[in-house]
Write a structure and sequence with these properties.
eight-stranded mixed beta barrel, globular, hydrolase, signal, Sortase family protein, Sortase_F
Length: 220
């Protein structure tokens, strides 16, 4: 169920749909009700620091153009001790053939959306997405993402060798047709980290999960 008619965010919508993978079992127990939704929304609408306004508006993913203005620091490693995650982070974009978010094929790895902000950015959402599981490979790096809760800690290491600590402020679940992509792929608002995987009921007919799990974290 890809979404292709929402302007510059159409390919992003298709990309989020690509986080679904054929699976042996459903995603497991449903997460508790959403937490921190209001805070996540406020982060996306907050006025960024004056020095960050030069980053501009969202970059259309279909153009394949990297943002300008300074050196980007990509994430290369993600650690979430509470759910046992230590994963390599690969820079990814959009698959030109499918117009989908090109998550790394190995479920042990996760992908950073390279047309969005890097770790050095003073505004915007750094997006990292990963598989929940796979029929061929088993549980993915984000299999337990739905278990994260407020104040859980995680660390992202950049290509510059610097470790950056984050604190979870929100965990939300959306039907894939309802996820507010403009919020989670924004280049404005307060600096934050957005983690995305799939979840909810597994449709045996389509071999897709119905929903997306979205975790929002802020610099600790």
């Amino acid at each position: 169920m890809t979404v292709r008619n929402r302007g510059a965010l159409a390919a992003m919508a298709a990309g989020v749909a690509a986080l679904t993978v054929a699976a042996l079992v459903a995603c497991g127990s449903q997460p508790a009700e959403d937490v921190g939704a209001d805070e996540a929304a406020a982060l996306a609408t907050a006025t960024p620091p004056p020095s960050a306004t030069a980053t501009g508006a969202s970059v259309p993913v279909t153009s394949g153009e990297l943002p300008t203005g300074g050196e980007t620091v990509p994430p290369v490693k993600l650690s979430i001790p509470g759910i046992g995650v230590t994963a390599t982070v690969d820079p990814v974009g959009i698959n030109k053939r499918t117009d989908e978010f090109e998550v790394p094929p190995s479920v042990d790895q996760v992908g950073w959306y390279r047309y969005g902000p890097g770790l050095e950015a003073e505004a915007g959402s750094v997006v990292i997405a990963g598989h929940v599981d796979s029929a061929e490979q088993g549980k993915g790096a984000f299999f337990r993402l739905r278990e994260l809760d407020r104040d859980d800690a995680l660390t992202v290491t950049g290509a510059d060798g610097k470790q950056r600590a984050y604190r979870v402020v929100a965990r939300e679940e959306y039907a894939k047709t309802k996820i507010p992509l403009e919020r989670y792929f924004a280049r404005d608002g307060r600096p934050r980290l957005t983690l995305i995987t799939c979840g909810g009921p597994f449709d045996q007919k389509t071999r897709h999960y119905r929903d997306n799990i979205v975790v929002t974290a802020v610099p600790a």
